[in-house]
Amino acid sequence: MTDIILHHYDLSPFSEKIRLALGYKGLPWKSVKVEAVPPRPLLDALTGGYRRVPVMQIGADIYCDTEVIFRALERIQPQPSLYPAGEGIAKALSFWWDRATWKPAIGILVDYIGEHLPEEFLRDRKDHYLGYDISKSAMAPMLSAYVQQMTAFGEWLASMLAENGDYLTGQAVSAADITCYHSLWLLRANCGAEAIDAQLRLSPAVTAWMDRIAAIGHGTPTEMTPEEALAVAKEAEPADSFAADADPTGLKPGQAVTVTPDDNAKVTVAGTLVAVDAQEIVIARQSSEAGTHHIHFPRAGFEVFAAPADAQTAA
Question: What pLDDT, in 10s, does the model give residues 211-260?
Fold first, then answer.
């Protein structure tokens, strides 16, 4: 198998999800560090401008969003599975957690460290990513609400553990555990575990669960430069085994389409439809920097529409 390459940065909570998933599956991977704030021209050449991190690359196949990365990892190495109790509950819980906890977690985070965040970072998140001001002063009026929400969610985790055992969906790690860990990891790593545990009233059961997830580790990464990763894509041909022609709205391979996140960082990526079902869509793009490559997106959380026949598909 061609090397797994992860484009990420250390303090990205969504990247932490994938680092843990790679560790759980025991897969070696190449680590390409990117800036927390764009521009990222070499990564853009692979993704068509999609601006969220992490991005996983295997040769000339590019995977955008953690849900479709999890799905690809299951194809690559089915065991141990990220869905030991089935996909439905784990995926639904993960989707809810990502969206429900993101803003309150940021609100609490900036209360602790907001004065240390660079102005460039704050401006980017307001103008190009989230659409709202995450500076400490802007988030402060809602801090009590953010704490209330995260405390409630923490109690829900404790309830799941009491019902199911060591992990949220049963006796084995699932994608839900790795996902629900990441927002709390972000807070504890940056604000202090003791302070966050007390503020959010995290139960011993929840903190012990977090210790179990942290113990999974990140496996065996080795460093790679962005230039090397781009060269890998240019020299390769798309090779992922996913193939389907089952779009619920009638889109067909060969059509020009656009793909856009529906929540934040709403950068539209255009390409030619290659494969599609209710869970995943793959588009082809071509550029002088990256050659012909396929970009994979999940369907949940993204809007896909037919584009004019002459839509731009090159970077």
Answer: 999 999 999 999 999 999 999 999 999 999 999 999 999 999 999 999 99
Helices (H), the chain: 13-25, 41-47, 66-76, 87-113, 119-124, 136-139, 143-164, 175-191, 193-199, 204-214, 226-235
CATH number of the domain residue 159 falls in: 1.20.1050.10
β-strand partners of 4: 29, 58
In a domain, 68, yes or no: yes
The tally of domains found in the chain comes to 2
For residue range 279-296, list pLDDT tens digits in order. Answer: 999 999 999 999 999 999
SS3 string, 228-270, reads HHHHHHHHCCCCCCCCCECCCCCCCCCCEEEEEECCCCCCCEE
Which run of H or of E encompasses 62? strand 61-64
